[in-house]
Design goal:
Helices cover 36% and strands 27% of the residues. It contains 3 helices and 12 strands, in the order ααβββββββαβββββ. Strands 1-2-5-4-3-12 form a 6-stranded antiparallel β-barrel. Strand 10 and strand 11 form a beta hairpin. The chain is rod-shaped and about 135 Å long.
Length: 283
């Protein structure tokens, strides 16, 4: 009878054999513990390093599991902090917008104090005909709000322009910087008459034009230019801007200059409209 090498030992026989060995070792260790000393020494040499290795591996795994848990916790905290930052950023942006609007309204209020004799209303720009500057634009108030053609328009510290078209709920404004804008004005304390002309081409350099100044007029750079009572469309005394770069004309009869507008035309939002008109227009 041949022994079948491919045949596996039955688990129950293997378990029985191991049980008998264990029982024998227990009996021997009970009768004479010294008999198993060589076995303990041998197993100690083999098992102890294995135990140490298992402990080290277990410690390494435990440390890395803790580290992984800490990283995950940090990631969760980081995501929460990002959400808080977004909330705070939104809050700051809203507060900045409200502060800007408050400052603009305060500026308009101060402007109304400069001209207390006029009945005014606040309007807002909602459209412009040019993407580069506010030479012609539309405001969100019109006939229903008491705004008509030729109403003067102000913002910042001075004149912006005049209403050229008025409809029920909105109006069109032509600014003083527009090429078609011409204003009879006065310079300085001497009430020197002049003409302020809009010029889009020079606005990029920060000025528009002042012409028809008498050659003998006593004016100097920095003099204020205001609307003249001679004008039939603009109320008297509204600040237009300030004189700079005075030159004698080629005809030797008049002088010209540049005018730096009092209003900032790079970005107009809210403004004041004088509801009174110097010249009534029938509708």
């Amino acid at each position: 009878m041949r022994f079948n090498r491919n045949k596996d030992i039955s688990p129950k026989y293997l378990l029985l054999l191991l049980s008998i060995v264990c029982i024998a070792l227990i009996v021997v260790s009970t009768i004479d513990p010294n008999l198993l000393r060589p076995v303990r020494q041998y197993t100690g040499k083999v098992i102890t390093p294995l135990q140490q290795g298992v402990d080290e591996v277990g410690g390494w795994i435990s440390d890395h599991l803790k580290m992984f848990g800490n990283i995950k916790q940090l990631q969760e905290e980081n995501e929460e902090l990002k959400k808080q930052v977004d909330i705070y950023r939104t809050e700051i942006e809203r507060n900045q917008a409200e502060l800007a609007e408050l400052n603009e309204l305060r500026s308009l209020y101060n402007l109304s104090l400069l001209y207390p004799d006029y009945n005014m209303t606040i309007a807002r720009v909602f459209s412009t005909n040019s993407s580069e500057c506010f030479n012609e634009f539309y405001i969100n108030k019109g006939l229903n709000d008491g705004i008509y053609e030729d109403c003067n328009v102000l913002c910042d510290a001075g004149l912006v322009g005049i209403v050229t078209e008025a409809y029920d709920d909105y109006s069109k404004v032509r600014a003083i910087i527009d090429d078609d804008s011409t204003i009879v004005a006065e310079i300085g304390n001497e009430n020197v008459l002049c003409t302020v002309e809009g010029d889009i081409s020079t606005l990029s350099e920060g000025y528009i034009l002042v012409k028809d100044i008498d050659k003998n007029a006593l004016i100097s750079e920095g003099d204020k230019v205001i609307t003249s009572n001679v004008s039939d469309r603009y109320f008297y005394g509204i600040t237009i801007g300030y004189i700079t770069d005075i030159t004698m004309d080629t005809n030797n009869l008049t002088k010209s200059a540049h005018l730096i507008p009092a209003a900032d035309f790079s970005d107009i939002d809210d403004l004041q409209v004088i509801l009174d008109r110097k010249k009534e227009v029938n509708y």
